[in-house]
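Target chain:
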Amino acid sequence: MHISESRSYPCDIAIVGGGLAGLTAGLVIASQGDASVILIDRDIGSNQSMPLTFLDTVQQFGLEESIVARYHSFAMRTRSGGQVLRRFDGTPLVVLDYRSACRQLYEHLRTYSTFAHLPLQARHLAREAVGWRVGLQDGGEVVSRLLIDASGIAHFSARQLGYALPPMYSHSYGQVFGDCNVPADQEGVALFLTGNPRHGNGGGWFYPLSARQASFGFAQLTNLSRFPAQECRQGFERAVQEFHPYAEIMQASKREGAHLGSIPLGPVKRLACDGLMRVGDAAGQATPWACMGVEPALLNGQLCGQVAVRAFRRGDLSRSGLQDYEKMWFARNGAGYRKAVMLADLEWQRGEAAWDHTLNQLDRLSGPEMLNSLRYNTPAFSLPLIWGLLVYDRLGLIRRGLRDRLWVRWGSAQLRRDDGR
């Protein structure tokens, strides 16, 4: 696709965001349709992370070259030392070099004549009579009939149009450690570490990358999109010193680089509006418990692109023409995500004893069941039971609040009596 020098770029479909979701949607559109596509992103695959994901999905999208490590087992471990481990057939879990995977998709996308990339930041958004006008950082603009927002945590369209944002965010900070002695029984095991207030309420991870290299980090779960840099780094440094046995493994090792990022959790209510689709982290589509975003980005980017192609061919880019995307996503994921989001405050603020109880529940799962739990994150509780738990928790907060207030009043009255003596 030819880009003119007028700084006004008309196209059929504009995509804001060059991560996995936006690139996958663009690739589907460019390969299946005749629509012209402009990708707007200053830096392709800017997320410097090495996330855990699933081998079969990586193979489905041809991203094997970006695999950093493979795992035959998954384990969850508490700070108190409790652990559940399951071994699988083959190596169904992998750590992916996110930036490399994005570059793979991008190089494939560049081969299509209907595609163009503007390495600029989208700054403004205005609705036109038919479509959208996206203002760019250099003063130029892209005019498109359909806008796909894959801007991730930037939430480009939501912030420009005043739409609601996802309710929670997982902010992670970790580092790769080299020259460390990974025990033989830890090799090939992807570990989730349970959350705690000292290291990170969002939990952590330990991924051996080789016999001499590992990725370790922790996450903070908040309801704010701003990355809490100080809290994340402080919690991480405490974990490096205190979370055993990994503290010993990383002792005297060489730090080879940090990887950090933020994942919105909880889907937005509307994935499709007139001439607008939201996908990936911009739509809060990462799994709400394991906070895994690679597979949802690829699969939902594919779905978004397929629906966009059909709607473009029909000439109907209204909400009703794009609604299949929203309907299909909620049919597949809505109930599970809704339950997980409702339970989030209880799930992530639990104490060590509650995590030990969770381990007992996980210990009942077979290997395939554990893998499905990791992939789909669907709580086993019914909605009425979840509502009951939330009401009970709220009553407990009220009860504790009244108790604390009475205690303060009683203490103040006691002090006045003591002063009177």
In short: The first strand starts at residue 8 and ends at 16. The chain is about 40% helix and 25% strand.
